[in-house]
Amino acid sequence: MTSSRKNKTIYIDKEATSALDLVKDGLLDPVTKLMGQEESKRVLETGLINGKTFPFPFILAPSGKKNAQVIQSLKVGEEVTLICENEPYATLVIDEVFAIDPQVRTRQIYGTADLSHPGVMNTIKRIGNWAIAGEYTRINPKKNENIQKIQEAKQILNAKRIKSLVMAANPLHRAHEKLIRQALDTTDLLVIFLLKPYNSANLSYEIRRETLDYFISNYLPKSRVVVIPLENSYIFAGYNEIILDALVAKNYGCDVLTVGRNHAGLGMFYDCNSNKSIVDKVIGIDLEIEIASEYVYCDKCTTLVSTNTCPHGQHHQISYHSDSILELLELGLLPPAVLIRKDISAFVLSKILPNRFKNLEKLYYDLLPVGGLLEEHTEHDFYLELMKLYQTTSLT
Asked: What is the mean pLDDT of residues 264-281?
């Protein structure tokens, strides 16, 4: 620790450390270190590292004038300290320093360098013009307990087949539930990687985790489901997301990655007289990638159905768009129970709009049936009872 303080310092953020942690925990294998210029070129030319698919170079090029000055002054073999939030994160022995083009880098990740793309704009602010390569050693590494968590569940269940899902559950709606149940129906153990992004355009991770845990505890065989937080850094963005998801799932010990048909990274392209997707580009990763059906609510079938089996067409189907359901919740509206489970809606609303009612008890006793006893009620209770009134149909 003392010697690292005497090194030259480079400042990085939490998003960078999350990617660096994945490598050191073996979760981005075959990547083991920060790449140099020649290795980066080989990855771009072949899309492979040691015979395994990897979509772009794994490099570190932090932005900032001070960082740029320090990086350009570094010599091969010199040790530098990486600082995150004013704390030493790792020491890095320099193999190479080389120039990069931030726009080229964002195009490698997102498939575009268009600044109107929100991901590109956020990422290009974080990328500098100089990359550093070499082996790094974390100063106070934290043990990744999630790897052990999956192994323990696997041993307890004697699980032979492990499926995985990657989802934001922002919020957790009925189509998510159907996807989870479908995956669980054909596996011994299901691992749900719950995305933990670095922006605020979502319900907080804590709210999404609590709702998912609630659903699992109350509506699923909870011993067969493990939830793992997946810090959704910039490297998981764009059309290569499925490849990295597959790598992480495999390195966590999963056999199958289930991907929704409407996944943003599942773009189709035409090659050799046939339709293909990014899944067809995955080489050397011993993992099955399974494309799940898209689920909708059909007002003719009056249930949740797959678009592959429903004959009634889009004019009878309600799709599950998370952003629109979230907008209802953010406006303080209870989404219909056909979209999101009422107890989950009640929980989310009570979290994102706390203390919104001037006199909750008066509202409760004025609008809802009560047993005559004075009892204290929460906003969660109020929303649940209010939903029951919405579902009353005797006057219609």
From this structure: 52
